[in-house]
Amino acid sequence: MNATNQLDFFNNWAGQLTLLVQIVIAMLLGAVLGLERELANKPAGFRTLVLIAGACALLVGLARVMTADFGNIFPPSLARADPVRVIQSIVTAVGFLGAGTIFRRKSDDMVEGLTTAATVLLAAAIGIACALNQFIVAGGITLIALVVLRVMSRVELRRRA
Fold first, then answer.
1. Rounded CA separation 31/37 (Å)
2. If you placed Cys at 26, which of 33, 39, 53, 72 could pair as Cys (CB 3.0 to 4.6 Å)?
3. Hey, how many other C-beta atoms are within 10 angstroms of the C-beta on 12?
4. Are the CB atoms for 99 and 117 separated by under 8 Å?
5. According to the model, what pLDDT value does residue 1 have?
6. Rounded to an integer, what distance in angstroms lies between the CA atom of residue 21 and that of residue 52?
7. What's this model's pTM, rounded to 2 decimal places?
């Protein structure tokens, strides 16, 4: 590490703390969804959704940092970064995680876990929103998701009864 890189590290502590706060907020919102899934005894629960939301916020935050750093180091013609690709990659990875929560019972041809898979994707999107400083959107969507998960599960239970 040369002297310039060391200086950048120590001068950028506020930016690093900001990213850390974004990740913590994402993880807290993921925890809210995870707690609901845990209480409903679903496959992807508290820890899973906390980690997904945090990982997504970290990945997007680091992509933003890398984009800015590359812009400072390389000429604009060489430093072409596309943070949208990071989000695309996150969605692909989360798709694999969500697929692991979906089960098909052969006995009665029922599919289970679709809601949990959707919640995994939503936790990822909430993490991305936090990394982009969209805290009102992230918090609002978390609350809306809780209403949907809780209210709709009661409606489904009544319909089956």
1. 10
2. 53
3. 15
4. yes
5. 45
6. 16
7. 0.82
Under 8 Å CB-to-CB from 52, ≥6 apart: which residues? 30, 94, 97, 120, 123, 124, 127
Write out the two tokens for 110.
Answer: 């029922």
Q: Which residues are 62's β-sheet partners?
A: none
Kindly compute the dihedral angle of the four CA atoms of residues 84, 80, 135, 151, in this order, to the nearest 10 degrees. Answer: 0
By C-alpha distance, which of 149, 125, 154 is closest to 29? 125
pLDDT along the chain (161 residues), means of 10: 54 88 97 92 87 95 84 72 85 90 76 87 96 96 94 76 67
Task: Please tell me the predicted confidence (pLDDT) of residue 105.
Answer: 73
Give the per-residue pLDDT at 79. Answer: 66
Distance CA 56, CA 132 (A): 11
Q: Which helix (H) or strand (E) holds 103?
A: strand 103-105
Q: Output the pLDDT for position 56.
A: 96
